[in-house]
Design brief:
Blueprint lengths: L7 H9 L5 H5 L10 H17 L1 H4 L9 H6 L3 H8 L4 E6 L6 H6 L3 E8 L2 H13 L5 E5 L2 H8 L5 E4 L21 H9 L4 E6 L5 H7 L3 E9 L2 E10 L7 E7 L4 E7 L8 E2 L5 E5 L1 H6 L2 H8 L2 E2 L7 E3 L7 E11 L2 H7 L4 E6 L6 H8 L2 E12 L5 E8 L1
Parallel strand pairs: 1-2, 1-4, 2-3, 4-5, 6-8, 10-12, 15-16
Antiparallel strand pairs: 5-7, 6-7, 8-9, 11-13, 11-14, 12-13, 14-17, 16-17
């Protein structure tokens, strides 16, 4: 940890250059002889990235930042706050501490937190930052988390872990066994130290595959922020033997949309219909969950077609989806497109449709924007249709 970066003149320079072009700054001459210019540039880039993602850190004096990549990979404050709602008790150990955002929020719910980080410099930075944030119930330990667990040799109410999401070849990871640490392989070892485990994974991980790899999964939380899935949380309770719950959460500025159902509940069957008065488009978290039959069954609304994943009803329902009023339902034909949409302005979405948005725009000269929302999709009779809607 380079404490010289905390010098007042350097900190003032960093603050004065938030949001400025990093490439341009990097070409300037270093005005601070006591530090490496690259380190200053990295502080500016990382703090700029934290402005909206980590406002608590951004608004606190004398915070030190790791690389911009580390900031990009860490939890946002909003998703970390959600995670903290899932835990309770006296103690929690984080086996992959990182920048410590999750632990900051866990510490508001649990008396004692242990932050493990294999990178010694990052561990020192996090410990320093917790002092600036006036957090006193987190111990930062540098080293391998498995070794630390053995050395501490104590029981915790919770273990939290965010396995590394890239393998040795730097490729995308689809299975937990390919992550570091290998949680499926170490699960029994972890249960020696806690009956409750919370795992964070990237959205790319397949839910069915994760449930096959892991034992005792109680709840899978699919967490989206402003309709973009950010992470999947696997809540594990030793000995849990029931069907896991799939819970979707879309955190918005004004609200938090939630939906849940039991995994592989065969009693949840979708009903189907041609378009009615209203159209419902599930948010990204629901789409990731694959609970398309559950949406239809639990909200008593009809699907347009098995693979279209759009829903319809005659009665307006305010459910955790985008809701539209259908103004027109058109067969996707050249005469209809020329009459109603060619050279017009519209927001376009495709669902189970053979053409891309880009092709549709180019083909029919449709500009982006306006008040019309057009859904190009397939109905239950396998006809290609266009639904011209207004948003509710």
């Amino acid at each position: 940890m380079n404490s010289l970066l905390l010098n007042l003149d350097i900190q003032e320079f960093i603050d004065a250059n938030i949001d400025n072009e990093i490439k341009t700054l990097a070409l300037q001459k270093n005005p601070f002889a006591e530090v490496n210019w690259t380190d200053v540039i990295h502080q500016i880039a990382s703090k700029t990235k934290s402005k909206t993602k980590l406002p608590t850190w951004f608004g606190t004096k004398n915070i030190l930042y790791p690389s911009k990549v580390s900031i990009e990979q860490t939890s946002s404050e909003k998703t970390a706050h959600y995670k903290s709602s899932l835990v309770a008790g006296l103690s929690l150990i984080d086996l992959s501490g990182g920048f410590g955002v999750d632990d900051y929020f866990f510490a508001k719910k649990i008396e004692k937190i242990v932050h493990c980080e294999i990178n010694t410099e990052l561990s020192e930075i996090v410990a320093h930052n917790f002092q600036q944030l006036k957090v006193t119930n987190i111990d930062c330990l540098a080293g391998d988390s498995t070794t630390i667990l053995k050395q501490l040799n104590q029981k915790f109410d919770w273990i939290y872990i965010d396995p590394s999401r890239r393998n040795d070849l730097k490729g995308k990871v689809f299975l937990l066994k390919d992550c570091l640490p290998n949680v499926p392989e170490l699960l029994d070892f972890y249960f020696d130290y806690s009956p409750n485990i919370l795992i964070k994974t990237a959205p790319i991980l397949d839910i069915s595959a994760g449930l096959t790899e892991l034992q005792y999964v109680k709840t899978v939380h699919i967490v989206a922020l402003e309709n973009e899935v950010k992470e999947i949380l696997w809540e594990i309770e030793k000995g849990f033997g029931n069907n896991p719950t799939i819970k979707t959460v879309n955190i918005r500025k004004e609200a938090q949309d939630e939906f849940e159902f039991e995994f592989q509940d065969n009693s949840l069957k979708a009903t189907y219909s041609l378009p009615k008065t209203y159209l419902y488009e599930p948010n990204a978290a629901i789409m990731k969950s694959g609970g398309f039959e559950a949406v239809s069954a639990l909200y008593a609304i009809d699907k347009l077609q098995q693979h279209s994943h759009l829903y319809t009803s005659d009665q307006l329902l305010m459910i955790p989806t985008r809701v539209f009023r259908i103004q027109q339902c058109l067969a996707y034909t050249k005469p209809n497109m020329k009459q109603f949409l060619e050279n017009q302005k519209a927001n376009i979405t495709i669902r189970n449709f053979p053409e891309t948005v880009e092709l549709i725009r180019k083909k029919w000269k449709i500009k982006d924007g306006g008040n019309n929302y057009c859904f190009f999709t397939t109905d239950l009779n396998n006809n290609k249709i266009v639904l011209i809607c207004t948003k509710i």
